[in-house]
Amino acid sequence: MKKLFITICVLCFVDSAHAQQDAVTYGVKYNPTSQKNEVYRANDDGTETFLIDFAFPSGGWVPGSSFADAKTGKLYLWDSGGGVSDEDKGFVVYDPATNTIETGVKNGYKDGYQKTFQSVLKIDDLIKNDTDATGDDISVIGSNELVGENGNTLISEEENGEIHIGENSLVTVEKDGVQLLYATDANDEQIDINIKAGTDLLVDGKSVSQAISDVATNKTNIATNTTNIATNTAGIATNKTNIATNTTNIATNTAGIANNVVRLDNLGALAASNASRVEGLETLTGLMQNEYRSGIASSIALSQIQYAASGFSIGVGHGEFKNKDEMAVGIGYGGQFNDDVGYQFQFGSSGDSTGFGFTVRF
Hints:
Blueprint: E1 6-10, E2 24-31, E3 36-42, E4 48-54, E5 61-68, E6 75-79, E7 91-95, E8 100-105, H1 123-126, E9 127-131, E10 137-141, E11 145-147, E12 153-157, E13 163-165, E14 170-175, E15 178-184, E16 190-191, E17 202-203, E18 206-207, H2 208-265, H3 267-303, E19 311-321, E20 324-336, E21 342-350, E22 353-361
Antiparallel strand pairs: 1-2, 2-3, 3-4, 5-6, 6-7, 7-8, 9-10, 11-12, 12-13, 13-14, 14-15, 15-16, 17-18, 19-20, 20-21, 21-22
């Protein structure tokens, strides 16, 4: 009985397009060398392909009581059951999808049967024509899950209404009036959806790739505008400074003009007083000599202080002119309005002399 060759035809799964695939023929035979039974696939060209070998727990089997499951494609091989425990009694099942053997399968196995028969699934249980609630013709599939011949899910509907496409799924579901679309991995964790190069994702007929490119262009334009605004801000600040300076100069000139009118009126009186003033020139000349030497020494001392172009700086300087020396101290701060415009503030003092400056660099 072990050496008997049996051929069992198995109908393959019909895909969702209802196109029937070619049937696959399997054969089981005994190898006296290895003392095991072997499963082969019989090819259309007359050759055979070895798949797996195994041993029946009892050492033998009953081909007449064996069958192929028309729904799963598995081969149910009836073990003869002699001299084995109840645990080992049962079918030896070969699964073509995984190329594996399982022993002791009790599904429909019971001592005393001359033969077992597998019920045939009605075609209406697989797929049938029907109408929906509005009377439109529809095709109804008798399962919420379609599985390929390799055992992987092709498409399924979950209890929460989610439609899963593929084993590691592309998922879509309507929630709160919005149709959601996302992807999950083998751990049911959400993952990214990548639109492959060479194609494009459209929203209301408009290219998402072009929209992304437009956003990048807008970001560049915004950055340019920001730089221009900063430049204009610095220019406005400079103009405000100049306007303030001009306002001061105008006020000074106005006062000067008024003062000159008064002075012109007083020239006669001044001419009369010039005689007495000439007499005091000698005294004033001596005093002025001391003051201008001190002033020149202060200027030299102030000029020795160098201010940093960026941040705070403080310094001291020493100046001497014709035996008159002075010390000076100064403080400054520099910075940038932006990459193109900088500024410098400085203040110095030496003796009776002080100085203040503010500079804008372009």
